Amino acid sequence: MTENFSRRSLACVLGLVLELSEARVAAAQQRSYKPNPAASLSKQITVAEAAVAQKPRDPEALMWLVKLYQAEAEFGKSLPLLERLVVLAPGDLEAQRFLGINRFHAGRPREALDPLKLAAQGNPRDDEASFYLGLCYLALDRDDEANKAFDRLAEGVRKNVDELYWLVKGYSRVSSVMLSRLAGIGEDSYRMHQVRGEYFDLDNNPDQAIKEYEKAVQLRPDLSSLHYVLGNAYWKRSHPDDAVAEFRRAIELDPRNFMAHYQLGLVLLEQNNPADALKEFRAALNEQPGLVNAYLGLGKALYQQKEYAAAVPILQRYTGLAPEDPTPHYLLHQIFRRLNDPAAAEEQLALFKQKEATAKAKKPAAIKFPEN
């Protein structure tokens, strides 16, 4: 399996592990409001519910009951309390983290993003907030952002070669067990076909990936994310018409799926349809202004439409966001030539050559093994 597949699998495994550890931690932390070690958890919940009924705007009482519910994995019961709590105490980072986690468990990953971002930004050492933030991005097919969240999480691990090795090996074992459990309880589920499709996709086997994704879509035709991954697989296999149909279906099911808009824009550019590609790139950026590559796509579409003056500020914005990429400079060179600005054209050509040379110099050389 590739590194990205391992990262996805590890994310799923860690989610299950953290849920169990969260319950144990919450059970210990709940004593902070009214300690009663002799009482059973159900008895403590009864007492805490009475306290909240008496003081519905008391943040301490609300948090006490939230933690007790968390200990029982009663995420549905915790959620309305947390919605109330973050209004009463918006600066409570723990409440924001709990709210994000509970929304994730309620199947609302998009709504979980904001509280998890607040928790992670407010406390960069909050590994659980970063982890669930990564899971939410995965659930929304925002892999690049998910990888950044997991990278931040990994950066917090002590930089010790042996320790890192054993952690990787241990998580791999747990991942293998969890995948076996997934196969056992859902052999013919859409999730199992999706996992297999991801494996074949990342293993550069698009034909097998397409077969698995198609099976997943047949089982759950209502999921935008499945049409999105199937569209990507079709595009990799050079089936652009099929890819367009799947991306459009993904957008029908979820108009806010900005990655489907973006990928559809790329395919339409490839099909020499810059007018429709423009609409898709703009839709992607309206939903997610931080989608850097969409600015390059938008600039290319404007260039193909011969809207040269409009393309210049878009491409210049992209150069600021991705300063190492030589591509926009060549496009700007061509544009300034057509706008009869030879000095600007030559400047862009020089930047293109400079950045292209730098990129080639940074490219790692192929590893050569000694011959026998």
Please provide a written account of the structure.
This protein is mostly helical and 372 residues long. The chain has a domain at 3-157: Tetratricopeptide repeat domain (Serine Threonine Protein Phosphatase 5, Tetratricopeptide repeat). 77% of the residues lie in helices and 0% in strands. The protein is built from 19 helices and no strands. Helix 4 runs antiparallel to helix 5 (93-105), helix 7 (127-139) runs antiparallel to helix 8 (143-155) and helix 10 packs antiparallel against helix 11 (206-219). It is globular, with a radius of gyration of 25 Å. The two termini are 28 Å apart. Residues 1-7, 9-32 and 367-372 have low confidence and may be disordered.
